[in-house]
Every structure is written in C-alpha cells, then in structure tokens.
Amino acid sequence: MKHKRMQHALVAVGQDIFAIGGRTTKFDPVSSIEVYSPQQDQWTLLDGVSLGPESLSVHFVDGQNIWLFGLRSSSGSMFSNVLRFDAETRSLTQSLLKGLVVADLRPC
Asked: What is this structure's pTM?
C-alpha cells in the first residue's frame, strides 16, 4: 500500500482489491481509497476520491458498486448518509437512497 493503514475496509471487485478508509499507525483518519492489482502486483492511490470518515461498513452489491455506510468522523459522530463507490469508473457519490436511517448502524 502507498499509505500504511489499519481498521480499514477491504473488498475485492473482479480482479482488484480496494482498501478503503481506516486509520494510520498514529491513529489519524485515512480518507483515501487504494486499489491493488494482482496482475501488476501494484497498489494505486485513487486521485480525486476522498472519504472523510475513519470507520465504515462496506457492502459490495451488483458486481460494480461498493456501498459505504456506518460512517464515523474523527470526532466520533456518525454520518447519516450512504456513499456509493463505483469500482468501474472509480468515482464516489452520495447514494440515491433517501430517508434511510443509518445512525444506529455500526462498523463490523
């Protein structure tokens, strides 16, 4: 990895492995996403993608989208939104799920 991290989410999509969020070894939040390509044996930091939260739950849906929720800021407050990371386009957006209450969800 380009950035050492712990307490991050790790998910495989197709041939790639995505490391999402987490903390540094000094417990600072990591807001980046990195992708590992086994074919190239190389980690790549995704430019222009910043999460902000330090802990999260990840659910992989439909072969392309990684849904992120249970997001917590460095102050410990929970975010009430759901993010969608498109593994094909490598873009992060707010989800279209409106009215979903996630305040009681906790990272696994």
From this structure: 0.73
Terminal-residue alpha carbon distance, the chain:
22
Domain-by-domain residue ranges, the chain?
A: 9-94
The alpha carbon dihedral of 39, 45, 48, 50 has a sign of positive
Please calculate the CA angle 6-12-16 and round it to the nearest 5 degrees. Answer: 100
Distances (CA, A) of 31 to 19, 39, 54, 72: 10, 25, 7, 11
pLDDT in tens, 60-95: 667 788 877 766 655 666 656 677 888 899 888 876
Residue 35: predicted pLDDT: 94
The mean pLDDT of 48-64, rounded to a whole number, is 67
Number of neighbouring beta carbons within 10 Å of residue 83:
20
Contact at 8 Å (CB) between 69 and 60? no
- Identify which of 11, 8, 7, 9 has the alpha carbon closest to the alpha carbon of residue 60: 11
User: How many whole angstroms separate alpha carbon 106 and alpha carbon 80?
Assistant: 12
